[in-house]
Specification:
214 residues; alpha/beta; Rossmann fold; three-stranded antiparallel beta sheet
Amino acid sequence: MRVIFIGPPGAGKGTQAAKVVERWGVAHISTGDILRANVKKGTPLGLKAKEYMNAGQLVPDEVIIAMMKDRLREADCADGFILDGFPRTVPQAEALDALMKELQLDLDSALLFQVDDDTVVERLSGRRVCRKCGAIYHATFHPTAVEGVCDVCGGEIYQREDDRESVIRQRLAVYHEQTAPLIDYYRGQSRLLEVDAAGSSDSVLAVLESTLGA
Ligand code: AP5
């Protein structure tokens, strides 16, 4: 399985990717997670990316493309992958096509998570994440059993810097302007599959499983 998850911020891409990779045993490659890990470690990549991320802007294409060229050559990608958050612009999609050709691999599909802007704001303003293992929660829809403590690993729960409402609105504007053109890009390649992501997490997973052919 080699699949791309496309959708606005907060559509549930990370939540569903975690479940799908558990079932299919493929690699989950989240560009947002890779960038945040680099920000945390203070690497040159992290220092470059931090300002863009906190402002709700995209990190420049050349930085992301170089990062993904390395990542997709790693051994865990051999049995397939879910790309969560990449590509996010047409130049990134073109670079991915070129890389797939070079690696003699084929993309199966691009899954579009469809959800409206108000739902995105509600989901992201309530999102909480484990600092240690990255598990995703929501203050209302999926709270931890003990406030501030991860159910999975006992790590500390925090709110992402870019989950403030003003930054969420900016990320949405960037999505509509720079990422939404990918819908036509993958439709043109007959790879686009649309998923209604507005329902409960379990109902979205059921749709995904039938779409992906479980
Ligand atoms: P990234 O981390 O990729 O953020 P994003 O795409 O904005 O997506 P999110 O992680 O915010 O949302 P999600 O769809 O994964 O939702 P989640 O499952 O967490 O990127 C961050 C930044 O990095 C970007 O802004 C950019 O600066 C940079 N970047 C990354 N990739 C880049 C690239 N390729 N090019 C350039 N820059 C790049 O769910 C959200 C919340 O909703 C959670 O609380 C969850 O519990 C809840 N929830 C999920 N599903 C449901 C449901 N069905 N019902 C109710 N609640 C739900």
